[in-house]
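Board notes, transcribed. Complex of a protein with zinc ion.
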Amino acid sequence: MNLKTFILLSTIFVSANAFDFIKYSLGRISQTDPCDDFYRHACPLGEYGHLVSEAYDSLFKEVIYKQKDSSWENLEILKVLEEVHVSVFDEDMNEIIVNSFEEMCQRNAPEKANFLLRVQQVLTKSLDTTCSQYTCLLPLAKDENCTQVSEILRRRLSHRGFEPPSMFIESLKWEIEKYLKNIRAVNIILDMNLQKGVKKLNSFTEEMIAVLSDWVKKTPWANNHGVEGTIEQIANEIHLEDNFPVQLAKNIEPLFKMEKMFLKCSREFSKQEDLLCLAYVAEFNELQSTPHAIFSEFSAMYRHPSTRVSSHLYAIATNAEAEAGTLGMAGLIAGHEIAHGVIEDPKRLQLFPVFSNEAIECVQNQYNKTCREFVEEICETDEYQIDENGADMLGLQLAYQLFENTYGDKKGFEYIKIHNRSITYQQLFFYGAAFANCDGRKSVGLGTHSASNVRTNVIANHPAFKEAFQCASDSRMMSTVEKQCLVYGEKAPQTRKKFHQKNI
Ligand SMILES: *[C@@H]1O[C@H](CO)[C@@H](O)[C@H](O)[C@H]1NC(C)=O
Ligand SMILES: *[C@@H]1O[C@H](CO)[C@@H](O)[C@H](O)[C@H]1NC(C)=O
Ligand SMILES: *[C@@H]1O[C@H](CO)[C@@H](O)[C@H](O)[C@H]1NC(C)=O
Ligand SMILES: [Zn+2]
C-alpha cells in the first residue's frame, strides 16, 4: 500500500487522549515524609505493577483494536501459523513432505513438479533451480511409479532434510509479531496525535546535547587528556529517532513481503501445503536486523547515533499539564539515553581513549550507599552496572539543567495542592523522576539496571533535591550522600595523567 494513503487512513482521532499520567500519579503519592524514602513516598507499595505500563495498557489496546480491520492485522500467514495444531510441532517434517508428495503423485496432480521444486529450493537454500546430486528433486516429477519415487524422496530427505515444524513456526511467529508490534507502536503515535510529545522529546534531546557539549568542553579530566573534542563529537551525533513514516515502511515492507511469498506458494497447490510454504517463507524471508524503531512496551534505548523511546513517553509528554513533570520523567529518560553515549567504564574502554575513574567511583559509591540504605528485596552494586548507573546520574543532571533553564526563579512556586501538601514545580520535577520507575512491588535489580527504588532514591545526590524538599542533613535520603557526582562540567574530577610522556 502507498504510504501516504496508509497514514491518512490511520489518522483517526482518539478521544481517550487527554490522560495526564503525571497528575494521575501525583494523586497516588503517600503522606509519608519525602526525605525519608522518596521512592516509596511517591510510589507506595501496593497492588500494582509497573505504573506506566499498567496505566497505558488499556489505552493502547483500544487504539490497536480500532485497527483490527487493517491489512497488517489480517495476514493470512499469521492466521495459518496460529491454526497449526501443537501436535504437529514435533512431527517429522520429512515424513509430512513424503506423504504429501505420494498423495499428490497418486492423484497425478499437475502441481507435483512445483512441489518438488519448492522442496528442492528449501534444501539447497537457493531460489533458482541449481542443485547437485541428491538435492536435485525436480527430475523426480517425471517418474510415474509413486511408491518408488516417494521412497527415493524419503531417502534423499534423510541426507539433508527439514527442521521440525516447531522451529520454523516459532521463528516466523516471533518475526511477524515483532513487525506488528512496531507497526502498532507507530500507529499509536499517529492515531493518538502524539506529535506534540514527539516535538517535545526532540527539543529536550537537542537542548540536553547542547548542555552536555558545553559541560564536556569544561571538564578537567577530559581537558587534561585532550579528549574533550572526541567526546563532544560523539555527543553531537546523537539524535532522537522520530522519522515514523520511514520506520513504518521499514516494518510494513518486510511483513508484506512475507505475506506475498506465502500466498504465492500456497496458491500453487490445490490442497493445503501450508507447512511446506511456511518452511519456504522461513528459509527465504530476509531478516531485517534493526526494525525496532519504537516499542509498544515501556522502554527506551540508545544505539549510536540514535535514541528511541516508547509511545508511552510521547503520550506523557503530549498530555502533561506542567512541563516540570515532563522534564523530570520523559526528560530524565531522554537524558539517560543520551548519557549512554558518553559514559564508559574506565576499566573497559570502548569508544574513548580514557575515562575518569574518580567520576565513576563516585557514582558507584552513591549507588552502593543508596542500595544499602533502602534495600527492599535485592539490590547490588557491581561493575557491570556502571554504564546504567552513570547514565541515570548524568541523565538526571541534564534534565535538571533544562528544568532550571525553563523555570529559573519560578521553581519554588506552587503547582498544586495534594493532601494539603503544596507541591512546587521543583518538587514536581523530582516526582516525575520517581514516576519513571514506579512499581508497587518490592524492588529487585534487573541485570544491568539497579533496583527501581535505588535508581530513584539516588536523586538525593543532586543538591536540588535537598532544596526542593527542605530535607534535613540527617534525613535518610540525605544520609546516603557524600558529594554530588559530576562526570562532566568544570567541577568534574581532574584525573591527571599518571605518567609523564616522553618529553623527558
Ligand atoms: C514400482 O516400484 C516398485 C519398487 O520400486 C516395484 O516393486 C513395482 O513393481 C513398481 N510398480 C510399477 C507399476 O512399475
Ligand atoms: C559497598 O559498600 C560496602 C560497605 O561499605 C563495601 O564493603 C562494598 O565493597 C561496597 N561495594 C561496592 C561495589 O562499592
Ligand atoms: C494537613 O492538614 C491537617 C489539618 O490542618 C494537619 O493536621 C496535617 O498536619 C496536614 N498535613 C500536612 C502533610 O501538611
Ligand atoms: Zn540505559
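Residues 1-15, 500-504 have pLDDT under 50 and may be disordered. The beta strands are 239-240, 300-303, 306-309, 414-418, 421-424.
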